[in-house]
Amino acid sequence: EYGDYNTLNVMRVGARTNSLPLMSVRPAAAWYGAGAAATEGTAIAAADYTGSAVNLSIQTMGVILYASREQLADSTIDMSSVIVRDLAMSIAQLLDETAFNSDGTADATDAGYFGIFQLVASVHTGLATTATSHQTVAATTLADWEKCLTTVSVGVLKRACRWWMHPQIRAKVALIVDSNGRPIFQTALESPSSTIGSIFGYPVTPVTAAPSTDSTGAKVAVFGDPAAQVVAIRSDIELAQSEHIKFAENQIGFRSIMRAGVKTRVPTGNPAGFKPLTVLTLG
Q1: If residue 121 lies in a helix (H) or strand (E), which one and from where to where?
Q2: Cα separation, 259 vs 237, whole angstroms
Q3: What 3-state class would DSSP assign to 94?
């Protein structure tokens, strides 16, 4: 049900604060020889590193659940395994919601992070793609979805790109057809991929934590390079229990924590440089 953050750029980090480089201009190579402007033996032109960096800060997620000893002892199934699964799923759900839909609010659910569906609000306005005059998913056309491919930088299309959208949005996309009446959403049989289907040959990932609103101004899909959204893991999910925290109530406490962080590798504002992701918004 959750754990879709694994389709992003999950990496291990060894510090609380981590600097992620952003190269804005790649150095250009040149020919040297008889047919070039510079002959063999000429010093190769040097270029400085051009770019900046964004900082990713690690924070802690946690959840505690109490269960009575009577409930644990009298259950006809192994309650401990159910509790452990639910605790792990709670952590995965929060990390999904943060990686995909957080809006930068400093609270218990967003922790100041931005999910990829909310980038265009405060991080990089140039990542927006608008389905102009189309106010529902059903009203969008092939051209609206094609805009996503022309909004990202051209080099991104050669990478392992994918789409992310809510499962109910994906169901509505399946009804959109091109001018020949052919659905734009191709099933795994029509266009083989590692997911249930694809659009323009790029796999579609259903994300439960993605927004599901289908009306004017709604963000309905994200397209681009998974490597652009970093999910940094400082320490894996830790599960523990205590028989003393609720001694008087005859309860056992179960705790799950994880140290992680989320950061998009894009410059802030609306620069003309590299654009690895785009957010499709109904207009």
Answers
A1: helix 119-122
A2: 8
A3: helix
E-strand stretches of the chain: 9-12, 17-25, 50-57, 59-68, 128-131, 162-165, 185-187, 197-199, 202-206, 219-224, 229-246, 251-264, 277-282
pLDDT digits (tens, 9 = 90+) for 210-263: 999 999 999 999 999 999 999 999 999 999 989 898 999 999 999 999 999 999
Backbone angles phi, psi at 171, to 5 degrees: -60, -35
137 in helix, strand or coil? helix
Q: Cα–Cα distance between 48 and 29 in angstroms, integer?
A: 13
Report d(CA 138, CA 177) in Å as an integer: 10
Residue with tokens 């169901």: 171
Gap between the Cα atoms of 232 and 157, Å rounded: 24
Alpha helices (runs of H) in 152-271, residue ranges in sequence order:
167-173
pTM of the model: 0.86
Q: Phi and psi (nearest 5°) for 109? A: -105, -25
Kindly provide the b/e burial profile for residues 135-165, where b requires at least 16 CB atoms within 10 angstroms of the residue's own CB. Answer: eebeebebebbebbbebbeeebbeeebbbbb
